[in-house]
Amino acid sequence: MDAALLLALGLLAQSLGLSLELPGLRKPSTLYPWRRAPALGRVRRAWVIPPISVSENHKRLPYPLVQIKSDKQQLGSVIYSIQGPGVDEEPRGVFSIDKFTGKVSLNAMLDREKTDRFRLRAFALDLGGSALEEPTDLEIVVVDQNDNRPVFRQDVFTGRVLEGAVPGTYVTKAEATDADDPETDNAALRYSILEQGGPQLFSIHEHTGEIRTVQVGLDREVVAVHNLTLQVADMSGDGLTATALAIITLEDVNDNAPAFTRDEFFMEATEAISGVDVGRLQVEDRDLPGSPNWAARFTILEGDPDGQFAIRTDPRTNEGVLSVVKPLDYESCEQYDLKVAVQNEAPLQATAPRAERGQARVHVQVRDVNEAPVFQENPLRTSLAEGAAAGTPVATFAAQDPDTQQLQRLSYSKDYDPEDWLQVDGATGQVQTQRVLSPASPFLKDGWYRAIILVHDNASPPCTATGTLSIEILEVNDHAPELSSPSGSLCSEPDQGAGLVLGAVDEDLPPHGAPFHFQLSPRVPEQARNWSVSQVNVLALPVALVAWSRQRSWDKGLLPGLQDDLRDNILNYDEQGGGEEDQDAYDISQLRHPTGTLGTPLGRPLLRRDAPFGQARPPPPRLLPTSPADIADFINDGLEAADSDPSVPPYDTALIYDYEGGGSVAGTLSSILSSLGDEDQDYTCLRDWGPRFARLADLYGPP
């Protein structure tokens, strides 16, 4: 040790009231912790002992640290002791003191990373055990040594970066720790890259450990993964070191366009079939397999105006699979020359070069096969009158052979003709009847008869086509209606009795059957003097006729329907009145202008002059007859009620149907029937009225 330094330390020790003995001089420093410095006019205070420093990992043990003394007694008359961690507390036995000399020694190696300082209490007692001085603090500081290597937090660091990334792009960060004192260079860490395995493409920040790209040229197709050997060193890079591995994966971008392996492809396809694969188009792409940058998409640019071909991508091989989606026709086109293009699902990078073979030609040769004949119209619909005689032409069910370049003959036959009604010419396909078809045939459905015709070519093997012939049997009015047996009774007295209810049947179907029109025979005009025929309407359907005997002098009677409910009344449609003299019975002008002068409110209803005035209102509507036997009474009661009703016009008055007048209080027929559609009516009840009405129930009721 330098002499000047020793002199300075000695003077400092004397000023502090202690004797100094450095380790090299065999004597430890002597402290007088209880000596008080003299001060005029002040109370003496104890000295503040500075911390005692000792290096960790000291191997020469025991090692003297310091000697403490009290100046109140002579040497040998003072007992010294220390207490605290390292003495009588864990870790025990690290420090000890000579109780007579006051020398403190280090007995074990220190580890600053476990305990960086010890705080002890020093005591001075006389031989009797009484305290000579107040206890004082003694602090021992463990000085750090670079005895710990830095440690990476991970053995392997991983990072990902896009290929072609610009310099300075962040990739990942390496981190390490050092157990030494962070306030010293022992824990001052520095990072570096020892090995990159190629060009210097990455750098690491020496203080933060961040890894970034340093130049262009990252190409996944050249090197997909980069392995970097990292190092960290303490003592600002000059001390202890540690290593780790950084694995950097380059993520793919679409910087390579797909390209066909050839400029032309040759394939063959069979005509008249679809949904089959024709061939495959091979392409190459250097981008990551399975990614959108690699997946190919094909487009037909030219040569397929009718959309007969399609190209799908095989996801495993990335090949284009050409298939036929619409049947080809050899006679129309023997060969197709397609121009196809390929591109990726993901858009190509703007800086990427274009592929030299981004397009290719595909030549598809069509193979000719025998095709089945084709009916020009299928199904073929025609009509024929019922009862057509044998030999009546029906239709010509002709077909064409699409194999125009092959000389083939067509022949026709029947496949389905349940009534054996038709005959087919085998050479021409002309169909005619060979007998009369019964209208009651069970194979006649809703007026239609169906047959199936076959056509064959004479190729080997032959092809067959099937055609459906639907024939509508037109109804002919070839049956006259027949009157049914009348029901009811007649009385020889005029206006007496219910009259006869007439009905009719017809074997023809609508429109040549029901409804019927009844009239007195025009060959006997004198019948009109004593007889009258009226249409009867029940549930808004004409179903029967009424005939009764009257004399000309008494035809002032009335047969209107009750006005309250159309469905509950008897309506007459075709009465012409009783002649010119009947005009006096009722003022016809009131029918044309029932409200009188426009703007004048309605007064009392006009009353008939030929009817009694005892009744001011018509009776309420009555229930419909429930059986055929009640119809006659229903009609008779209705006639009597109408004849005695003073608020309606007389029976034989000319009726006006096309003028309702202004401001009429009566509703129109359309408003009455607006909610009474045919779909709301149930005509099955007509079957309960007897066999005469069963035909009507069949016509208007549900099937």
UniProtKB/TrEMBL annotation:
Q: Which InterPro entries match?
A: Cadherin (IPR039808), Cadherin-like_dom (IPR002126), Cadherin-like_sf (IPR015919), Cadherin_CS (IPR020894), Cadherin_Y-type_LIR (IPR000233), Catenin-bd_sf (IPR027397)
Any single GO molecular-function term of the entry would be: calcium ion binding
| UniProt keywords, alphabetically | Calcium, Cell adhesion, Cell membrane, Cleavage on pair of basic residues, Glycoprotein, Membrane, Metal-binding, Repeat, Signal, Transmembrane, Transmembrane helix
Q: How does it sit in the membrane?
A: Single-pass type I membrane protein
One GO cellular component term of this record is:
catenin complex
Per UniProt, residues of the Cadherin domain are 71-152, 153-260, 275-375, 376-483
The listed locations are: Cell membrane
PROSITE patterns for this protein: CADHERIN_1 (PS00232), CADHERIN_2 (PS50268)
For the keyword DNA repair, the answer is no
Q: Chief location of this protein?
A: membrane
Residues spanning the signal sequence: 1-17
Q: Name one GO biological process term.
A: cell morphogenesis
What task does this protein carry out?
Answer: Cadherins are calcium-dependent cell adhesion proteins.
- According to UniProt, the name of this protein is Cadherin 15
| Encoding gene (name) | CDH15
